[in-house]
């Protein structure tokens, strides 16, 4: 079975549905945010601090600037991490990131962690340090565990929160990693449920693409699934779905499959270039890293990978970088 498209799914979910995500996972904090004020995504800034830390671990880091409803308070940076596996000294890393961000930007930083791994007993939320000079550090950060959301997830699902569907798919993908029949059945019921809840078709299309990244099935089973939904609709065994909605379903599945492949291939190509540079020249500048990560053209990334292996120095490589404008 294809691997779980973890990074791409959660990056897209946060960028598309950040407010409903916060409503579901961190409701008390969500209530204090002024959602009429545009939020700012500062991922490039975050990479300046995090890009050399524990590369290869399954996680998604986001840095978001938000405004509060209470105008007497200044804005806040939210460092949000989606963690998909256990990590040694994890609490220390969250503390270090928080400290470095506060020092660098001189703003309040709220650290939030969502644990999406399958270990029910791992959910650290505090860093403590006691030194010989009797100085002590205690740093607490808000956390949520997807597998423990329980009733909160049910309520959000019933209210039509799109992130609830993504979480359902994530948890089911973990449970059905080696169970194709089980995954097929869950995906079928989830797609039926999405349309029966009367969600707007455009929103359903986006959720479908996210679900498909998580609930991957072989192409023959995807076609079988679409056919089965069409048959059930015609036989009145489910709430009627219009031909337009069925077309959206098919397009959403295909879009999800295509976007998942493209995102995964693009990330691998970018990392190949950066790995080649770091292997040959050691640490590279933030500017070069950002320029490589801004590139999306597969042919250009392939060319740069070859050049990273062949050029005599970093300056020569930088001279060949063509970064898209806008």
Describe what this molecule looks like in 3D.
- This protein is of the alpha/beta class and 326 residues long.
- The protein has three domains: 6-148, no CATH class; 175-262; 268-320, no CATH class.
- It is 56% helix and 12% strand.
- It has 14 helices and seven strands.
- The strands form two sheets. It has a five-stranded mixed sheet, with helices on both faces. A two-stranded antiparallel sheet has the order 5-6.
- Strand 3 (76-83), helix 5 (90-105) and strand 4 form a beta-alpha-beta unit.
- The radius of gyration is 22 Å and the shape is globular.
- The two termini are 38 Å apart.
- Briefly note the structural class of the backbone: alpha/beta
In the sheet with the most strands, the strands line up as 1-2-3-4-7
- Estimate what percentage of residues fall within beta strands: 5-15%
Helix and strand element order: HHHEHEEHEEEEHHHHHHHHH
Number of H/I helices: 14
- Overall strand count: 7
Our count of domains comes out at 3
Task: State the helical fraction.
Answer: 55-70%
Q: Sheet bearing the most strands, described? A: 5 strands, mixed
Radius of gyration: 22 Å
N-end to C-end Cα span: 38 Å
The geometry reads as globular
Averaging pLDDT over every residue, what do you get?
A: 81
Specify the oligomeric state. single chain
Report low-confidence residues grouped into runs of 5 or more. 238-245
């Amino acid at each position: 079975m294809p691997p779980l498209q973890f990074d791409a799914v959660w990056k897209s979910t946060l960028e598309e549905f950040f407010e409903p995500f916060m409503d579901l996972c961190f409701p008390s904090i969500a209530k204090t945010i002024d959602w009429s004020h545009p939020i700012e995504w500062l991922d490039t800034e975050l990479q300046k601090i995090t890009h050399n830390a524990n590369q290869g671990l399954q996680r998604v880091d986001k840095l978001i600037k938000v405004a509060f409803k209470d105008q007497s308070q200044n804005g806040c940076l939210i460092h949000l991490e989606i963690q998909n596996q256990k990590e040694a000294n994890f609490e220390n890393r969250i503390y270090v990131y928080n400290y470095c961000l506060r020092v660098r930007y001189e703003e309040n930083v709220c650290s939030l962690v969502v644990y999406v791994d399958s270990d029910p007993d791992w959910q650290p939320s505090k860093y403590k340090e006691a030194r010989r000079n009797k100085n002590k550090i205690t740093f607490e950060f808000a956390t949520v565990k997807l597998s423990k959301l329980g009733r909160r997830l049910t309520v959000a699902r019933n209210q039509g929160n799109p992130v609830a569907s993504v979480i359902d798919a994530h948890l089911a993908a973990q449970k059905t990693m080696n169970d194709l029949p089980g995954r097929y059945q869950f995906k079928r019921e989830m797609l039926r449920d999405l349309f029966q809840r009367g969600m707007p078709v455009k929103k359903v299309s986006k959720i479908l693409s996210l679900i498909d990244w998580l609930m991957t099935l072989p192409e023959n089973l995807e076609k079988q699934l679409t056919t089965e939904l069409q048959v059930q609709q015609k036989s009145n065994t489910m709430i009627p779905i219009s031909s337009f909605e069925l077309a959206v379903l098919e397009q959403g599945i295909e879009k999800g499959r295509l976007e998942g492949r493209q995102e995964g291939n693009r990330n691998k190509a970018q990392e190949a270039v950066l790995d080649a540079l770091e292997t040959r020249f050691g640490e590279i500048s933030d500017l070069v890293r950002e320029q490589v990560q801004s590139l999306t053209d597969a042919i250009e990334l392939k060319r740069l990978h070859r050049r990273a292996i062949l050029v005599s120095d970093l300056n020569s490589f930088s001279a060949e970088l063509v970064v898209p404008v806008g």
